[in-house]
Amino acid sequence: MKLTDLRGILQYVPQFREKTFVISLDGAVVTDENFANILTDIALMRSLNIRVVLVHGASAQIKALGEEQGIQPSNLDGAGVTDAATLKLALTASNRLTHEILEGLSANDLRAACTNAILAYPLGILDGVDHLLT
Q1: Quick one: average pLDDT of 101-119?
Q2: I want to staple 28 with a disulfide (CB 3.0 to 4.6 A). Which of 45, 60, 83, 114 is the partner?
Q3: Where are the domains of the chain?
Q4: CATH numeric code, 3-130
C-alpha cells in the first residue's frame, strides 16, 4: 500500500465512523486465496470504528456437499423450490461455512457472533406449484 492510498482512505473515515456496513459474500470467496485479504480489510474497518455485518451465500458449499453425499440439490440459486434433502444440505453447508468465517475473523482478533436462528414459513402452493420448504 502506498502512502497516497492511505491518505485517500483517511478522508472517508469521519464520514463512516460508527456506521454499519453490510457486506454480502458469495460462499465461494472463502476458498479463494484473497479471502485473507477480505478479513484484513474487515479488521481495518473495525479498527476505524466501522461496524460490519457479514451476510454470506453458500451455493458452492451446498453443491459440493450434495456431490459428496450423492444428492442433487433442487435449488441452488435461491429462486426455485427447495425440497427437504436440499434444505438439510443447505443448513449443514451454511453452518460449516459460518464456522469457517468465524474462525477467520477470530484469527484476525475480531469478535464475531452468529445468530444461529432460522425463521421460516411454508410458501404453500402458488400457481399450481407446491413450494415445499422454500
Answers
A1: 87
A2: 60
A3: 3-130
A4: 3.40.1160.10
